Amino acid sequence: MMNHRFWRIKTIKVIPRKWKMVKKASIFKKKIKSIWEKIRVCSSEKFKKYKKLSTKNISQELEVVDSVNIFSDDDSDLVALKISILGDCQIGKTSFVAKYVGDEQEKKCLQMNGLNLMDKTLVIKGARIAFTIWDVGGEHSSYDLIPIACKDAVAILFMFDLNCRRSLNNVKYWYIQARKWNKSAIPILIGTKFDDFVQLPLDIQWTVVSQARTYAKAMKATLFFSSATHNINVNKIFKFIMAKLFNLPWTVQKNLTIGEPIIDF
């Protein structure tokens, strides 16, 4: 049973702010409406040994194709799925997403005040799957975006900087707020900037790993340490999500070795 005292945090009063529109307000509303209509809920030298991940060596049943614009009208066979990303600011959330979707899709990113939307389209067993990734800013002004970002998401990625304990402590707040609006999404806890973290003394690494594993257990989440710079576990995280959603014959292996990118569940 989850210890409620463990999750007790101080309530923060937030003054809602209106979003800045990318273009005209009418265009923005049409795009947001289009997204909701398309979303369907679905049940050092140390780095030399880390190879960049590719779809070929993970699963032969997963074929990556060029991303498409989910706002286009030619999407009758497209299954749109929503993924939300929460965490403090300046912890590498946007870099993480950009590494996954690629440079071209990053340029097409729909940006608003406190929110970025990016998409990635894949082919799985002949079906086109479009991930719409909602990257929520970590500033207080973006807290009022949590409800719309989390609602109907199939997975929520809770991210923290491995080199900043405060960002890990704040995961409790993000988790509690997210679960108010979505209790069924797959929870994943992600520690970013592993390439910097691995340079820290082993005793500090052990402390952070222990705390992160404790949080992941309380959240019933899978834990990944990642690096966008070196593409460590970035692709693997999204493949893990797809395997869970579509029952693909692929499983992730645990790695609890201090000094290596942790994977725990």
UniProtKB/TrEMBL annotation:
InterPro entries tied to this protein: P-loop_NTPase, Small_GTPase, Small_GTPase_Tem1/Spg1
Family matches, as Pfam families: Ras (PF00071)
Keywords, ordered alphabetically: Nucleotide-binding
Gene Ontology MF, one: GTPase activity
Keyword Cell cycle: no
Protein name from the UniProt record: Septum-promoting GTP-binding protein 1-like
Organism (species): Solanum commersonii
Upper taxonomic lineage: Eukaryota, Viridiplantae, Streptophyta, Embryophyta, Tracheophyta
